Amino acid sequence: MNQQIHESEATPEEVYAIAREVEYLADQVDKIAWQVARAGQELDGGWIGTAKTKFFLAFAPLPREITSFSKDLRGKVTQIKVIRVIVQVVRWVEDQF
To answer: Whole-prediction pTM value?
Structure first.
């Protein structure tokens, strides 16, 4: 008997479910970024002095950083969708004389 090996590339079924979940999480992170930005705007009216200035200098980049994380997640979605595996099928074939 001889062994025949057939290889092919395939996308695992789980890839699309995982990609959808990561996309959903990215949407949730976008909502958090929006909520954080809005919360910062609501705080702005009642503060005075250097404490306010220092706080908002430290706080200002946070919504952008959160949005950046969301964009990173969306990039991962693209990477996940192109995952391929090698499927190997081994068959035993009788010798023919």
So the answer is: 0.73
